[in-house]
Amino acid sequence: MKQGFQLEDVQTQIKNVVVDYERTTTDRLAFLREQAAIARKLGVAKNTIEAQTFSAQNGMVANVKTDTPFYLRGFEAIEKEIELIESRDDKGAFTSGLVELEQKKRALEQDKTLQRVEKNKEFLDALVELEKKVRQLEQDKTLERAEALFADTPVMRADDFSAVLMTVAATEFESKSKRMLMLAMAVVLGGLVGTVYVLIANAMRKRNEQMA
Questions:
Q1: Domain boundary pick from 109, 135, 162
Q2: Do 136 and 49 belong together in one domain?
Q3: Cα separations in angstroms, 89 against 85, 92, 94, 100
Q4: What rounded mean pLDDT belongs to the chain?
Q5: d(Cα 84, Cα 173) in Å, to the nearest integer?
Q6: Which residue from 26, 39, 45, 85 could staple onto 71, CB 3.0 to 4.6 Å apart?
Q7: Residue 38's domain spans which residues?
């Protein structure tokens, strides 16, 4: 949010300096047109401002009187300045303070602090998840329990276990089926049921005869 607010403030400042340039340029053109009109009225075409020159160690130095009326520069120079101002394509090159503000705006837009914080957060979150998994693995007793169970099997007890090689094809199987015993029991049980049925049938027949 702070970065966004700063960027918004810089953008506002850029708009302000552009507006200030337009106002300053308008005022400047109005002044120049006024001075050019005066110079034309007086017939001052060339610069008539007196300048005193004197030699110095590094060259010539001019001392211009600053209280001299501006129209004495001549309408030719003044109107040329008006023409140049009106023909400017890149107004930003003449806007005071615009370069510094654009540099500040570019620095804010290219600031990757927030993106780096987000990436760092993602890395830290991933690291926390990995640490959780490591902790779960360290606290997992499954392997330890499996080793304990395996240690209690005959394989680990040499006195009760011996390794063998079994060939299934050469193995003889002995059947211990009780089919014959079951058949004999079925015959005996069938005979008993038949005998009981006969006895009951004879008893009912004799009873019917007596009642008749």
A1: 109
A2: no
A3: 9, 9, 10, 20
A4: 79
A5: 118
A6: 39
A7: 2-109
